[in-house]
Amino acid sequence: MKYVxxxxxTILTLVLTSGSVKQTTPSVGYYPGETIPDIVLTGLNGxxxxxxxxxxxxxxxxxxxxxxxxxxxxxxKLYNYIKxxxxxxxxxxxxxxxxxxxxxxxxxMDNLETISQFCEIEGSASALYRDFKLNRGFRSYLIxxxxxxxxxxxxxxxxxxxx
Length: 163
Fold this sequence. Notes:
The chain is of the alpha/beta class. Helices cover 34% and strands 18% of the residues. It has one domain: Glutaredoxin (3-Layer(aba) Sandwich), CATH 3.40.30.10. The protein has 5 helices and 7 strands; from the N terminus they run αβββαβαβαββα. β6 (140-143) and β7 (149-152) form a beta hairpin. The mean pLDDT is 86.
């Protein structure tokens, strides 16, 4: 009986401590502590940029759509906070509007520079929408210089604290 209890205790200890093993590099994923996957972004002129081209810089990645008032407001707030406070961070705004003209008009109405604005015209049918599980709500990410997600669903106030 002592032997069985000893074996069960040892197995339980191994199971409980195995989850605390630290990896040397973050896994690829969509949550803080993970490396954000490289995605291809399409600009207004149809030119494509890869997210990993921003490596070496802190980046705010924001997913939104003009039909979602909350995500649109978050996009404007983040953009304005970064611009007005001259923070050393790049802003990448990704619209999930299926019509790029709608996204362009929205950027114009919201007084946003188009240099960091991208549009995923497949909208909710896109792999980006599916992979980032945006059906559960649009979100934003703060990415460090190594491409690791520092925080998600950030606000301007969060940026003030984290940067």
